[in-house]
Write a structure and sequence with these properties.
Layout (H helix, E strand, L loop, with lengths): L6 H16 L12 H8 L10 H12 L21 H13 L10 H17 L7 E5 L2 H18 L5 H4 L8 E5 L4 H9 L7 E4 L9 H9 L5 E6 L11 H10 L3 E5 L24 E5 L11 E5 L2 H8 L29 H35 L4 E3 L7 E6 L6 H15 L5 E5 L2 E7 L7 H15 L6
Parallel strand pairs: 2-3, 2-4, 4-5, 5-6
Antiparallel strand pairs: 1-7, 6-7, 8-9, 9-11, 10-11
Helix pairs in contact: 1-3, 4-12, 5-12, 6-8, 6-11, 9-10, 12-14, 13-14
Keywords: Decarboxylase, Lyase, Pyridoxal phosphate
Organism: Streptosporangium subroseum
Cofactor: pyridoxal 5'-phosphate
Length: about 475
Amino acid sequence: MEKPDWAAPLAEAYERSLAYLTTLPDRPVGSATDRLDLRAALGGPLPEAPQDAREVVARLAAAAEPGLVSTQSGRFFGFVIGGANPAALAADWLTTTWDQNACLSALAPAASVVEEVTGAWLVQLLGLPAHASTGFVTGGQMANFTALAAARHEMLRREGWDVEADGLAGAPRLRVLAGRHRHNTIDRAAGFLGLGRAAITSVDTDDQGRMIPDALSDALAESDRPTIVCTQAGGVNTGAFDPVGDICAVAHEAGAWVHVDGAFGLWAAASPRLRHLTAGVERADSWATDGHKWLNVPYDSGLVFCAHPRAHRAAMGTRADYLIHGGEGERDALDYTPEFSRRARGFPVYAAIGALGRAGVAELVERCCALAGSFAEQLAAHDGVEILNDVVLNQVLVRFLAADGDHDGHTRAVVERVQRDGTCWMSGTTWNGRAAMRISVSNWSTDQDDVDRSVAAILRCARPDAEG
């Protein structure tokens, strides 16, 4: 076997990684360059000859770093991205080093067992049924896709139709009921699965985006078609929770499948203080969440759970003569995810839970929510600033009022100024037709000083005399 020089390129990567991570508290959070400069730095003709590996790594890092958004920073508050804690990041390095294809137990025994163990831990942390099956996917999109594939299988099976064998042509038509403020991954999953986005009926929600059970009951009564109900644990704008327990009672009475999209909000179940928000969640049929949000595991790390493991495996599993399928007591990951070849995502999740423990996960979630409350309290104390949501979790919607009445234009301008300022980074959104700044607090390293510095920057950018 050839013995390449591992030490030099890995040393270069380690040194640059450590320099990047240790300077995060002082780095501007947004990108420091534009795409033209990035193309100039990273582009060029196709290399014709081999090059020194360490020099390649050094050039890549130097050229790419100005174009990075510091999502690992404690002052990054966009898109519910939680960064990566040290144990999870270190385990992710090992994952890359070991380079296991985690599709089959025979191919990656350690990865298989880690996913088995970690799946059981996650089910306990999130208060889900002990028998629920687990799949490690890329993110919330594929978690929702996988769960809805299991739902599609089971609802059509009850109608006497084998969708995996016979497809959808001629099948009983499914419908999907979901709240008006659902995440777009539900619509995309319906499209991917051949149900069609037109199969989704929007159910009325209250002023915080919570599905109204009576409205769901009315929608269920409109048709006797097989139905999937999609609920939400933590709305991406307000952080609000559908009353999942009440929804399960109504939906199950009508014979429907209930799926919970809990990309970040499902983690509230790990907190004794916040668990009431997820009351009844264990009564659902499937659940989706993200490890790279509140567990702070590196991308990619989505998680799907199903209370009907047989339906989960039927929707995802495959068999082939050239594969070595696991025997009794052996878990093949390809039976639970859409992918064949795939990264061993269980290792970083294992490390994150091991480093935090149950108490650490609860503390992380509760601290982020307390800091979100601090954001809202400090900003609301100033004239011309309006908080649009009840801050029940880690999401804060902020609107900035303009003297000329163009509140939408002023709010969008403030968001852009904050992003350019570099102290912190938030994304914009639209809530009930009104422009807003969306603050998402989900990083393990965020502290009160980060919030205070960010509030000062936001207020500075919101002043009427701030640069346009």
